[in-house]
Amino acid sequence: QVQLVESGGGLVQAGGSLRLSCAASGRTITSYAMGWFRQAPGKEREFVATINWSGDTTYYADSAKGRFTISRDNSKNTVYLQMYSLKPEDTALYYCAAARGLAAVTSLAGFASWGQGTQVTVSS
């Protein structure tokens, strides 16, 4: 099973940017599609973005389209989430996840391994 550790979260003003990283260990991420999810206090965990094993297919939640970019560097066993034009409603704990297969998927059930999360707080 792959272990995932997120980093790069923090406090940023509205309109600012952050880049989240997800470092994997234990197995190579070329065996998995990868994804980012987020969970705000009192809300359910929700899909943000996903990328297939090779990086040529991506899907985004409507809230992330045009502002967030998911990418991966398989040589570094790392996945990224670049976030621009951040809004207060983007405030949440962001989780990296490894899917059960190679294809990009958007449902929580499609992911088998999860990191501990990194906090993103956007002030107005």
Description:
The chain is mainly beta and 124 residues long. It has no helices and 11 strands. Strand 5 and strand 6 form a beta hairpin. It is globular. The termini are far apart. The mean pLDDT is 97.
What shape does the CA trace take?
A: globular
Helix content: under 10%
Q: Tell me what portion of residues adopts beta-strand conformation.
A: over 45%
**Euclidean distance between termini CA atoms:** 39 Å
Cα-atom Rg, whole angstroms? 13 Å
> Which structural class do you get from the secondary structure elements?
mainly beta
Count every helix, treating DSSP H or I runs of 4 or more residues as helices.
Answer: 0
Mean pLDDT across all residues, rounded? 97
Question: Layout of helices and strands, plus pairs?
Answer:
Elements: E1 3-7, E2 10-13, E3 18-25, E4 34-39, E5 46-51, E6 58-60, E7 68-73, E8 78-83, E9 92-99, E10 111-114, E11 118-123
Parallel strand pairs: 2-11
Antiparallel strand pairs: 1-3, 3-8, 4-5, 4-9, 5-6, 7-8, 9-10, 9-11
